[in-house]
User: What shape does this take?
Amino acid sequence: MELTPMAPQCGVEISGVSLANCSDAKMREIKHAIYEHGVAVFRDQDFSPEDHIAFAKRWGGIDINNYFPLEDEHPEIAIVRKKPDQKTNIGGAWHTDHSYDQIPAMGSILVARELPPEGGDTLFAHMGAAYDSLSDELKAEIEGLEAFHTADHVYEEGGIYAQTDMGGDLRGQGLKTGATHPVVIRHPHTGRRLLYVNGAFTINFLGKTRAESLPLLHKLLDAAVRDDNQCRVKWRPGTVAIWDNRTTWHNAMNDYHGHYREMHRITLSGEALAA
Ligand code: OGA
Ligand code: MN
Assistant: This one.
């Protein structure tokens, strides 16, 4: 197995392994690389929906996404799809998945099933590098802070997606979500300090209103997505990417209007987060 970093701070490409037939030793190495680099990309994989599910189960539990359409025959698999006549995509802003859960998903295994001729890349940003890049004053300001996260404004009736042409494809409009997490968490496996607020689901700092929280939130969000914290995943047929939601945020480029894109996602269960 060969590991090649994709960018100085974020992402690793792993070759010389077939995910569908991977030894326990390679599995341990892959997990560690993802915890550390945030996202790993595997090319030319022969990876059926059954392989996808079996591989996910080797990590632990599967968290079924409450909102995306599910694959009919394999309800463990969520479908991340944009049709040629749709203008809105799923995940088209910086976010980390499921931060609105009290025990957020560890990460996802995303498989390219149908790609547009060009575009549809996914950007990732490393939250350890983001935290390290903050000034000492900013680090002191967020020490010990907690923040509230919810998905309700995104997915509810009349919410962000409901106002778009993606609204009709999504489920779960009546659900209520909400969780509080430290603004700086320690990665459960690497111990690295990571910034854990995001633009999609983080609403306010505890003890402050939304309006009072916004200036600091914007400062952190801007710092988090500096170019040098990022890497870009260019999908090809057979590409599988696995990311860690604690170590990274991601952003799905929406630059392929008029074309179809379909990805299969399995969301991996995580563990409680601590400062
Ligand atoms: C996701 C997501 C990114 C993409 O599946 O969580 O944000 O590129 N998708 O489709
Ligand atoms: Mn996402």
Q: What stands out?
A: The longest strand covers residues 107-114. The chain has six helices and 16 strands.
